[in-house]
Write a structure and sequence with these properties.
With about 325 residues, the chain is mostly helical. The protein has 13 helices and 5 strands. The protein has helices spanning about 20-35, 45-50, 55-75, 90-100, 105-110, 110-120, 125-140, 155-170, 215-225, 240-255, 260-265, 270-295, 300-330, and strands at about 10-15, 40-45, 80-85, 145-150, 180. The strands form 2 sheets. Strands 1-2-3 form a 3-stranded parallel sheet. Strand 4, helix 8 and strand 5 form a beta-alpha-beta unit. Helix 3 (about 55-75) packs across helix 12, helix 4 (about 90-100) packs across helix 7 and helix 9 runs antiparallel to helix 12. The radius of gyration is 21 Å and the shape is globular. The relative contact order is 0.15. The chain binds tryptophanyl-5'AMP. Tryptophanyl-5'AMP (TYM) binds near residues 135, 150 and 199.
Length: about 325
């Protein structure tokens, strides 16, 4: 009997500076876990990164480090395709096409666009506005069934589905309409300094986020300074955003349930709790940091890996792109 086709997973992360514990718990940890069960394709979305101005030397360094870090997290290039977006030209090409099937009004409603344009008021460029079309192109090129992301990408995924359905209806079924895969735990890790806003690498206050490569000392210090409340009770409840967030992080790295965590810290203060969360995170990140040092020292291996990834990705992407161009009516070259 013919073996059933595995479902296809696609996801990507921007190599814009430090990758945080939020990225890891919301997305990367899942990517690693899904590799055996699915046909996985992962990308460093560097084309997305230039919507905000980048220093060339830093940008190059960040991309290579992000590639090494993802390998260190457990992305396995034998099991999955792992490539750099700008190395596969079909992404930019399909993005242009999809721009012509995406409405101004739809893009204007994107909360990330509103947030980012408020933050970078001096550089509200067309790329920032059209960013979701590029993201749709990323996903649709690979006919992905599932897209593992954190909760903040939900709106972009919804747009991707709408664009895919619109194109399929206008021509004939061309794109798989993808579903999001958002984890129950970790989908929205909050800032340690302001637990009402998400943990973000662009936070001006470095105490708000844990970078994946922060040293154990720095991690412990950031957790000890984390904002909690005056209730002094480790309990998951409405209005306890800081404690809920720390409990969520602890649950993700230890696999414990909220009830187990409440029992573990019954009658104990926040000091003990924060130390325990910090130590659990340090231990979780330790092997990743060790593997990172090995990968980043081996530039030849990294280069071979991302070149191979791009070649494999391009074969799939070009097939979809050719189909799209033909359906629209472009004269074959
Ligand atoms: P990016 O680079 O901002 O984030 C990468 C992944 O991390 C998740 N994430 C979080 N999860 C939980 N808590 C947080 N505080 C947190 N912060 C970030 C994000 O949801 C994401 O899954 N546009 C995307 C990259 C992208 C992409 C794609 C994703 C480009 N093309 C196609 C999926 C499919 C982005 O900027 O993610």
């Amino acid at each position: 009997m013919e073996e059933q086709r595995k479902q296809v997973i696609f996801s990507a992360i921007q190599p814009s500076g430090t990758i945080t514990l939020g990225n890891y718990l919301g997305a990367l940890k899942n990517w690693v876990a899904l590799q055996d069960e699915y046909d996985c394709i992962f990308s460093l979305a560097d084309l997305h990164t230039i919507t905000v101005r980048q220093d060339p030397a830093k940008f190059r360094k960040n991309a290579l480090e992000a590639y090494a870090l993802l390998l260190a997290c457990g992305i396995d290039p034998q099991k999955s395709i792992f490539f750099i977006q700008s190395h596969v030209s079909a992404h930019a090409e399909l993005a242009w096409v999809l721009n012509c099937y995406t409405q101004f009004g739809e893009l204007s409603r994107m909360t990330q666009f509103k947030d980012k344009s408020a933050k970078h008021a001096d550089n509200i460029n067309a790329g920032l506005f059209a960013y979701p079309s590029l993201m749709a192109a990323d996903i649709l090129l690979y006919q992905a069934d599932l897209v593992p992301v954190g909760a903040d990408q939900k709106q972009h995924l919804e747009l991707t589905r709408n664009v895919a359905e619109r194109f399929n209806a206008a021509y004939s079924p061309t794109f798989t309409v993808p579903d999001g895969y958002i984890p129950k735990q970790g989908a929205r890790i909050m800032s340690l300094q302001d637990p009402t806003s998400k943990m973000s690498k662009s936070d001006e206050n470095a105490n708000g986020f844990i970078a994946m490569l922060d040293s154990p000392d720095v991690i412990m210090r950031k957790f000890k300074r984390a904002v909690t409340d005056s209730d002094a009770c480790v309990r998951y409840a409405e209005g306890k955003d800081g404690v809920n967030n720390l409990m969520g992080i602890y649950a993700c790295v230890t696999g414990k349930t909220m009830e187990e965590i409440e029992r573990e810290f019954e009658g104990r203060g926040y000091g003990d709790f924060k130390t325990a969360v910090g130590e659990a995170v340090v231990e979780h990140l330790r092997p990743i940091q060790e593997r990172f040092s090995q990968y980043i020292a081996d530039k030849a291996y990294l280069e071979a890996c991302y070149r191979d990834g791009a070649a494999r990705a391009a074969r799939i992407a070009n097939r979809t792109l050719a189909k799209v161009m033909k359906k629209i009516g472009f004269l074959p070259g």
